[in-house]
Specification:
Layout lengths: L3 E9 L3 H12 L3 H9 L2 E9 L2 E8 L5 H10 L1 H10 L3 E2 L11 E2 L10
Length: 114
């Protein structure tokens, strides 16, 4: 089974000081958060920012389960602390469900498939 890629999007608050704080947190992500990401089967993760719009690319191994990751995150107090802190900076997208942050994007083009 090959690697799978997930792409998500989310907005930040439209405040340059908060955006800078958010970037600082992501230059020094808590070790427990990194361990949680890696132990769930995520092999690579990148976040990009333009203005207030973020784009997250997550590559996962063949044994990855989004449901298992969500359950592990919900049971991990440090992950919950991080997520609560990040809400200070993040702004749900229009149409997001209550409490929903990163929204999975649909792939609409792949050069390899052309």
């Amino acid at each position: 089974m090959s690697m799978q890629r997930y792409c998500f999007t989310l907005n930040l608050q439209d405040d340059p000081l908060l955006i800078e704080e958010y970037k600082q947190y992501h230059r020094a992500v808590w070790p427990e958060i990194l361990e949680s990401i890696r132990s769930s089967g995520v092999t690579d993760m990148e976040i990009y920012l333009l203005g207030t719009r973020m784009f997250l690319i997550m590559d996962v191994g063949p044994d990855f389960s989004m449901e298992a990751k969500d359950a592990a995150d919900a049971a991990n107090p440090k992950v919950q602390e991080w997520e609560q802190l990040m809400w200070k900076y993040q702004k749900a997208l229009p149409g997001a469900k209550p409490g929903e942050k990163w929204i999975l994007m649909d792939k609409i083009f792949d050069l390899k498939m052309q």
